[in-house]
Write a structure and sequence with these properties.
Largest sheet: 4 strands, parallel
Distance between the termini: 42 Å
CATH topology: TIM Barrel
CATH class: Alpha Beta
Radius of gyration: 20 Å
Shape: globular
CATH architecture: Alpha-Beta Barrel
Number of domains: 1
Number of strands: 13
Number of helices: 15
């Protein structure tokens, strides 16, 4: 993929322009301070290189390009180097569970050493039950000997993909963010950032540490059956501006955001929940249409990126993007992302019928395996692969260390940024302001 790196540097430069300077909206004054420092157009025209430990051994407080400090990453690497195969396997899985009894996911986290779990609509009843569940998950991680929180994630994008409906504040579809940018770039960025901030704070108040948002896919409109109004825009530059603002808001809130679905699901004309969509876009078309919002996310220190289940014929034909090394190379080598990569759900129809989808994704470059069909079976498959050498221990340690480091970072930010007592009122106001700015 190195041959396209110069063109992707130009994409990254454009992402900086649309996400942080005049034209599509300069950073508004008076906003909450961002969690991490970000480049400005005068400082850089591409994502900053993360200093390695060997380059800055004297300064462990140096932040990486995706959140954690060098010291936190080094501490995580040292920790996982001593983990058993069972701990390592668990450390790269975000499990699924059925029902609403907090004891079930808590036992999975404790006994299988899971990085965490994903919470869906089927797992929630009301606010008290959600609080009991997230508390039980935190206790389970502590009982497993961890002094950092587990991944407790939820799809809470706004609009119809909101798994805490009736429990957390309802926000409009993310399409509203793009409309707000188009109506008034400066105001749009401010209300998007505030919406993400209050969403993240409210989720943290409910015990969550991750949010599976924002959606960076650039939709093609009516022919796109999966993303649609979940996308900020049909315009890559508008989408890039919205994504940059959202990432900063989530960072402000001290929650791990998850930009999705790389390298862009908006052009797929079939639904990956049911089948493996074939996307015939050329590499040049993907660069121009799909990558700008992801470049913006990386410039703005996105901590995690979710990989799509798409057959990208110009990059890795006949292989889901989530299981294709070439797609991870595109993200890491060409766009410069150094944070956590997580698959889309491994229970989706796009990857159904593959013999070992979790191992394929892990070997390709995934750091977290999201919602395998059978969490316990997948855990044992990964344990056996590590033990036999079918998957290198080095690869799994690399993945687990990134996950541990981002959880250390999340815990540190959460400690520095307490959830305000009036967070629900603030979230409702932010939702109304976003809607008002768009229409």
């Amino acid at each position: 993929m190195s041959s396209i790196r110069p063109r992707l540097a130009v994409i990254a430069a454009g992402a900086l322009l649309v996400s942080g300077c005049a034209g599509l909206g300069a950073e508004p004054s008076g906003d909450a301070s961002p969690a991490t420092s970000t480049a400005t157009p005068s400082e850089s025209t591409a994502p900053a290189e993360t200093p390695t430990a060997s380059e800055t051994p004297e300064d462990p407080d140096t932040p990486t390009s995706w959140g954690p400090t060098i010291g936190e990453l080094e501490e995580a690497q040292e920790l996982v180097s001593g983990w058993t195969p069972e701990q390592l396997a668990g450390g790269v899985i975000v499990g699924r569970f059925h029902g609403s009894d907090p004891a079930e996911p808590a036992a999975m986290v404790r006994d299988l050493h899971l990085a965490g779990v994903s919470v869906t609509t089927a797992n929630v009843v009301d606010r008290d039950q959600v609080l009991a569940m997230t508390s039980a998950l935190a206790d389970a991680a502590a009982a497993d000997g961890r002094d950092f929180p587990p991944v407790i994630g939820v799809d809470q994008e706004g609009g119809y993909v909101s798994h805490l409906r009736g429990i957390a504040t309802e926000f409009p579809h993310f399409q509203t963010a793009g409309l707000a940018i188009q109506a008034d770039p400066r105001l749009g960025r401010r209300v998007i950032r505030e919406a993400a901030l209050t969403t993240g704070l409210e989720l943290r108040g409910l015990g969550f540490t991750w949010v599976f948002a924002p959606v960076a896919d650039v939709t093609i409109g009516a022919a796109d059956p999966t993303i649609g109004a979940r996308s900020p825009s049909e315009d890559p530059n508008v989408a890039a501006a919205a994504i940059g603002a959202a990432i900063k808001g989530y960072d402000d809130a001290g929650i791990v955001s998850t930009v999705k679905h790389f390298p862009g699901h908006g052009t797929a004309t079939s639904d990956s929940h049911d089948t493996l969509p074939v996307v015939g876009s050329t590499l040049a078309e993907i660069e121009a249409h799909d990558l700008p919002p992801f470049a913006s996310a990386i410039v703005n220190a996105a901590p995690a990126v979710m990989m799509s289940h798409l057959d990208l014929t110009s990059i890795a034909p006949d292989v889901p993007a989530s299981m294709a090394p070439e797609v991870y190379d595109l993200l890491r080598d060409d766009l410069g992302f150094e944070g956590v990569t997580i698959t889309d759900s491994l229970g989706m129809g796009a990857v159904g019928g593959r013999p070992t989808p979790a191992l394929q994704a892990l070997e390709a470059g995934a750091d977290l395996l999201l919602m395998p069909v059978d969490t316990a079976v997948t855990h044992q498959i990964v344990v056996d692969a590590i033990t036999s050498g079918a998957v290198s221990r080095e690869r799994v340690e690399e993945a687990a260390a990134r996950v541990v480091a981002v959880q250390m970072w999340q815990a540190r930010l959460a400690a520095e940024r307490p959830v305000p007592p009036d967070v629900v009122e603030k979230a409702r106001a932010a939702s109304a302001d976003l809607e008002s700015a768009a229409y």
